[in-house]
User: What shape does this take?
Amino acid sequence: MTELDYYEVLEVTRDCSGVELKKSYRKLAMKYHPDRNPGDKEAEDKFKVVNEAYQVLSDEEKRSIYDRYGKAGLEGQGAGRGGFGGTNMDDIMDVFNSMFGGSSGFGGFGQSRRDPNQKYPLDFEIEIELEFHEAVFGCKKEVDMTYKTSCEPCDGTGAKDAKVESCEYCGGQGQVLMRQGPMQFAQTCPQCQGQGKTIKEACESCHGKGYHVEEDTVTITVPAGVDSGNRLRAQGYGNEGRNNTRGDLIITFAVQEDENFVRNGTDIYIEVPVFFTQSILGETISIPTLDGELDLNLNKGTTDKEQYVFPNEGVVDVHSGEKGRLIAQIKLILPKKTNDEQKELLEKLQESYGVESHPHKSTFDSAFDRVKSWFKN
Assistant: This one.
């Protein structure tokens, strides 16, 4: 049986960073989670393998052993058993929080920040767009938002005079236990939406919702180097619950593309159009960078798609503070039309190179002779 490569399982390269590893793990774990694929044995198996791979690669020591000796070198290290083992529980909780709206999703794996009597989560998430340069250099953004506040007349219950009864479906627990294969997990009660209580008569102030909606504007500082999918937590700007407690606002960024620069992590790519004569002669040309310009010294005979790499001219890493690379890729431009004078000059140039100007002849001479021999009697 062919052994699965953990890097392929997590869809990352062998030199990927911890951030890239976690991001890919989180995406795949959510994709194959049994609760999202009820009755799908293949998804369940993939979910186990994804966790097994991340358990190894997220641990520096285990990853080093795996890189040198493969899975066999990890025997006795606690890897490859299909469970969670030494997997970073914060990463697992990130997956569950995304799927279950702040609840752990698995019984016994952590406590929800949510008050069981609270009708809505205190934390909530919004997405804001950033222009390319705003993400690269950082900026301050004013974000208009709405948040919920607990209704005072009903104490956030949604019931007239705060009179509530225990939910019969879940027995007042707010959750019901579900089993998917060998795994057992808690799911929000569909009858009471996790409240554990039901109401007979709705509050007139909030019409049974248990909250009112307020408007606010928050100014956030966007750090340099953020990228699409990155998240920022603004503490104390979430929904306001009972007893005036307030959660956090979680902001997810969506970065717009630039007309010339293409970003890949902390690296920046730029396509540089070069006329064929510039390529032949090896000119020096100026190209734009993120914060100015620099000289690109073309090698004589530069080819199409050839790349020139400039260290520390890319985007700053939002975690380490180190800058990536600027990678200039050549796009060779050939003339679309030539007049009589240009044609004459090009012919003279070609003749001046002699045999070198007809590379196809030396390449195909033997092929022509071989083809002719096939048809001789």
